[in-house]
């Protein structure tokens, strides 16, 4: 759908955004947003962009590269800068100043290391998240989704593509099927099709979700999605939002490791959860699940088949065990002689 955009210069757009947020956030938060957007507006002016309508994903990329390389912005600061820019562009889309969805083209950097492979949900942290959900939101969409992703290590696309019929309660497994013509493809196409075993505990959660809280809505192809909202099949974006929301430490243990005031933190509202330096998308949850399986002595071939990841990729991008951990695990298989 084509949207008719109304011309708007960057400085005016920034001021309109700040005026809109003034009654919603604390003064300190508003000042932080003003400072970050000042950098973006100045970049637009220096680059000759005088109309927000002209900004594209490539422009956002050039700004990101400039802030990272020329300005040498630290990773944590870059994440805050881009998180604010996301909110700004989302506001601009709401007033027809930029194309809808431009904000979704902004990818936030990781903050736990120089390489994305370092970012993962640890087992201890996963248990805190799931214990919180089990206590306060048992068998809700959020609890069931995160419990299944942690237990199975599924990619978010594979998880949201499941139908109710793909869950076998008696056989205690999920069936992954590649359905590209109906909007639910698997990453490695038919090579990703498989059965994934489930534990008693996960089956209990799924059974309770389906019997008590599932909205039982059809998707646009008249399929019955396993993970559904009142609008139909759960979208990948909404699934990512759920991950961001519940991996914030302030949610599951009511404290902030970043010395922010929880009540006034700009990332406290659910829709802004991705701005929290500690929040995680579904992929680090998958990475954490894979690592935990390996740390628990699950054979690499079993992990490879279950998680749909090649052995070489598993070693290179997912295995977070230390060399010492690997040595001690191999020692358990040595003969006593």
UniProtKB/TrEMBL annotation:
Domain Core-binding (CB) positions: 8-93
PROSITE patterns documented for this protein: CB, TYR_RECOMBINASE
Keywords annotated in UniProt: DNA integration, DNA recombination, DNA-binding
Gene Ontology MF term list: DNA binding
TM spans (from-to): none
GO biological process: DNA integration; DNA recombination
Annotated ranges, domain Tyr recombinase: 116-331
Protein name: Integrase family protein
